[in-house]
Amino acid sequence: MAIVVGNEVTQMREESGMASIFDRIGGSDAVAAVVNEFYTRVVADPMLRGYFADVDMAKLKAHQRSFVAAALGGPQEYRGKSMDEAHAGLGITAEEFDQVVFHLAGALESCGVDAETIGSIAGALAPLKEQVVQSAVAA
Ligand code: HEM
Fold this sequence. Notes:
mainly alpha; Globin-like; 0% strand; binds protoporphyrin IX containing FE; metal-binding; Group 1 truncated hemoglobin; oxygen transport; heme; iron
């Protein structure tokens, strides 16, 4: 599958001549820390926790680590479901999507990622809204 967000981040990096965001934030250890912190926040949030009640969190975290790593320009490929497939039928709203991005930003911040990098990541995730939110109008 094509990872839109990964392509955009990679393109941004190539144009700017910068190291990948993946490298800048500290590679796979940093991604694992961010993903753990992210799901701690998500399942603590009454707006979101219901979605994850019957989900195998260890498996989900593993997929999310590889998705985030690939999206940030890391070396390995993401081999999980497409964003359409992963979220089909869940009925996720635009508000819930924004809340998930908010928790991801919070997790990145608490792991020491700078505000500018967080802005780039959040901006790169915005186009996924259409795939995650089924009835979403393009953001
Ligand atoms: C930027 C936004 C998002 C990204 C990048 C993302 C990414 C992912 C990834 C990589 C998976 C694993 C796919 C697989 O198993 O192969 C997944 C699954 C899942 N996501 Fe998301 N997600 C996003 C937003 C959301 C939102 C807003 C919700 C709910 C409010 C949500 C709920 C879920 C659930 C419940 C699963 C597990 C589905 C299952 O195993 O049956 N996600 N997501």
